């Protein structure tokens, strides 16, 4: 059986971690469809929509990697609808921070009351991996299985940390750009300059507090 990971390209790193987990628990590379990665995606020269349509018709096991980004993608929603029409066997995986009570999830093609799993929850992922192994009809050495889960969880935590650090850096950059812009605002008279000086002092104090909070956050995340 083939396994098709329906995902947003913006969730590539999470999807790639799932691909590696599938391989580590015995799914052959050629049986994994993951369009964002060479070797698992669309063959060169193929029409993407025709190829996906034919693959979905073959009834692969569909793994929906759900996120806010997924529901913002017309392509992802088309994949979900096509797989639903064919009635493919499937499971939903939730990216970190995704809220299963999201109205778009409940109104979508996937039955919201069916089994779903958070990709950063170890027990959820063990149950997911058990389903995959059972679907394949394989037997995996318990030690190898546990090592695959541990390796996967470490990868997911690293990805989450990278995303958190990136968001902090983006916030600092945005704050710096805002402060720099304020420095170039002209002042019409002495009274305005006095008021602006007090305002700048307040801004600098708030900025100082934010920087301290960010440094503390980074220190905690490094432990």
From TrEMBL:
InterPro entries xrefs: TIR_dom (IPR000157), Toll_tir_struct_dom_sf (IPR035897)
Pfam family of the protein (one): TIR_2
GO biological process, alphabetically ordered: signal transduction
TIR domain residues: 1-126
Stated name of the protein: TIR domain-containing protein
Species name: Lentibacillus cibarius
